[in-house]
Structure prediction request, 147 residues.
Amino acid sequence: MEKTYIMIKPDGVQRGLIGQILQRFEAKGLKLVASKLMVVSKAQAEKHYQEHVERSFFPELLGFITSGPVLAMVWEGDQAVVTCRNLIGKTNPVEAAPGTIRGDLALHTGMNLIHGSDSVESAEREIAIFFEQSEVQSYTKAADQWV
Prediction:
């Protein structure tokens, strides 16, 4: 089974949307295998957003992601990366389809509630930034045969 990294950003935590967002992944049939509420350190943020280091918005991005608690998670399922990205919606909430997390709940690109890995390779890299291997659980759900 494929794993992906999902993070509810500080704006999603502050707006009290954790439960609503988690329900969408669970309803889809994905399995939560790791989670923790945490404040992202500057070092973690720099590693996580390394591809944006040369962009003008990088300092603002670091300031935002380290501004308050996030819910860091690992979800598992068949084609988890693509499935989660489809649930999340486009980066710009104005362009995100209705029915997606960003399309339904977000207003601004800079504060768009949630991050999801964009590839299996990114997922592996991002999971390693936020979780020790021992923190990612492996278990079987009774419903797995139906999903």
User: Anything to note?
Assistant: The chain has seven helices and four strands.
